[in-house]
């Protein structure tokens, strides 16, 4: 069932034009991208099913093409490509903002940016945001994957990448697939180890952000760092 087959007052496109984008629920916005449903399921129902299956917008946008391909109605390349494109546009828009402004001016944007990259990964990922002297983003790099401990995150590698980018500061970031964003003692210990290593080359650790789907924790904001 396509948009034209829905009641007029249920069509997301008409609702957006008449009332503005803020009036649309997540499923309605997603339906605009999908455009058509499948046999026995209209496009709004399909959108809602996708959100529930993958844990909301964040989970859906972090879902890989192969996982999407298993969903009835998502077997074609076009719809999967559009979802991946939306995520990439969001990443690039946030990256542009952080490259133009100091991260201290937009801590929420930093957390959202990190969430878009690694928040919904099924495994742990350790990333570093390398910053210039004005604390604007140079680049985000994913450096380590798997169970993150002091033994598996190598300070030497992070120091080398900081020197390569001529970074003046960094924001450390990793995800907790379990859903809890509270830092563990191991997280705090690792942060201090990296902080000490980077200080030897005059690179400052200004924050360590922990994310999970829909949640984020800033050590700097909470006074843990």
- Overall mean pLDDT stands at 83
- Total count of strands: 5
CATH topology of the largest domain: Cytidine Deaminase, domain 2
Secondary structure tally, helices: 9
Question: Roughly how many Å apart are the termini?
Answer: 53 Å
Percentage of residues in helical conformation:
40-55%
Q: What overall geometry do the principal axes of the alpha carbons give?
A: elongated
CATH class of the largest domain: Alpha Beta
Low-confidence stretches: none
| Secondary structural class | alpha+beta
Radius of gyration: 20 Å
Q: Widest sheet: strand order?
A: 2-1-3-4-5
Query: Beta-strand level of the residues, as a percent range?
Result: 15-25%
Number of domains: 2
CATH superfamily of the largest domain: Cytidine Deaminase, domain 2
Describe the largest sheet.
5 strands, mixed
Order of helices and strands: HHHHHHHEEHEHEE
Would you identify the CATH architecture of the largest domain? 3-Layer(aba) Sandwich
């Amino acid at each position: 069932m396509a948009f034209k087959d829905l009641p007029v007052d249920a069509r997301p496109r008409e609702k957006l034009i008449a009332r503005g984008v803020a009036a649309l629920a997540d499923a309605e916005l997603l339906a605009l991208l999908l455009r058509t449903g499948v046999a026995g399921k209209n496009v709004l129902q399909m959108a809602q099913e996708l959100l529930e299956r993958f844990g909301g917008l964040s989970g859906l946008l972090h879902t890989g093409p192969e996982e999407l391909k298993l969903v009835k109605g998502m077997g074609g390349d076009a719809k999967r490509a559009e979802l991946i494109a939306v995520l990439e546009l969001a990443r690039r828009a946030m990256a542009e903002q952080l490259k133009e402004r100091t991260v201290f001016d937009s801590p929420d944007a930093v957390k959202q940016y990190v969430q878009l990259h690694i928040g919904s990964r099924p495994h742990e990922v350790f990333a570093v945001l390398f910053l210039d002297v004005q604390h604007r983003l140079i680049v985000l790099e994913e450096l380590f994957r798997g169970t993150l401990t002091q033994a598996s995150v190598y300070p030497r590698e992070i120091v080398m990448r900081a020197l390569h980018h001529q970074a003046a500061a960094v924001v450390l970031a990793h995800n907790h697939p379990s859903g809890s964003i509270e830092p563990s003692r191991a997280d705090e210990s690792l942060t201090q180890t990296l902080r000490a290593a980077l200080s030897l080359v005059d690179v400052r650790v200004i924050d360590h952000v922990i994310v999970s789907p829909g949640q984020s924790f800033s050590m700097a904001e909470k006074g843990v760092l």
